[in-house]
Amino acid sequence: MPDSKLHWEDFITGAVTVYGPRLVTREEIVAFAAEFDPQPMHLDEAAASATLLGGLGGSGWHMCSLMMRMIADGFVLNSTSMGAPGVDEVNWLKPLRPGVRLRLRATVLETRASGSKPNVGLTKFKFELLDDADAVVMTQVNTMMFGRRAPAGAA
Amino acid sequence: MPDSKLHWEDFITGAVTVYGPRLVTREEIVAFAAEFDPQPMHLDEAAASATLLGGLGGSGWHMCSLMMRMIADGFVLNSTSMGAPGVDEVNWLKPLRPGVRLRLRATVLETRASGSKPNVGLTKFKFELLDDADAVVMTQVNTMMFGRRAPAGAA
Predict the structure, then answer these.
(1) Could you say which of A60, A69, A85 has the minimum Cβ distance to residue B37?
(2) Domain limits of chain A?
(3) Could you tell me the CATH superfamily of domain B8-25+59-147?
């Protein structure tokens, strides 16, 4: 029986998949900020209205963390993922507003075999968080490691 | 009386400051992972020992979030920070282990005036999270916006 988990070979350059939605509440935004990013613009409407956010908006790191959860539920937990060495770039384009229903658009930018590990392949993604109006709230480019169905040299 | 908050002019290229320590418990690692990154390597010692982490290690996004809190307590909450447009790069170099006491090393890489906003300056930082043995667990490069003491053209 074939392994139903997603392997490196299953990610095709140019493929686009959309995950979600994920509702984000004011309570979540304030709880995350209180623990990790207690700047007034993430905690309090009145203080936030005087900032560049123009009203309460979640921490950029909250966006990243929510995106990770959507990636995990979307495909990582059903894959041979071995994690990621880091992130190439993160762009916070719009505020994370209470009540938004986020969707995640994942585009496969590139795939390549590992140069050193024959059973590992690398997949470079562009991830975009979208709001209810399809506006892009955050973009991220990062490369993840996946196990291969067929190790290099075994074909 | 001069404003005691840190302004853009107070960040000098080449300056290095170390903040912390911040103890990270197993409970925190598992709680963050359960909410945002429920991969087995972040939740369970036995599952983690079979992965590249070689034992329980926190989510990379937990490292980023903890770093944000250390930055906030270290200087951002006592500054004219206006946030950041994004992150240039994140590198996860070593696992985040339960019981580690993290320190944060902040290096000012570059400062420049905003081209469009006379009362805003940009400061580019390299941030490094260090473990108890001074090994670098994570690096990050990002640019933050700060209010200026003296707007451009006012000198």
Answers:
(1) A69
(2) 8-25+59-147
(3) Hotdog Thioesterase (3.10.129.10)
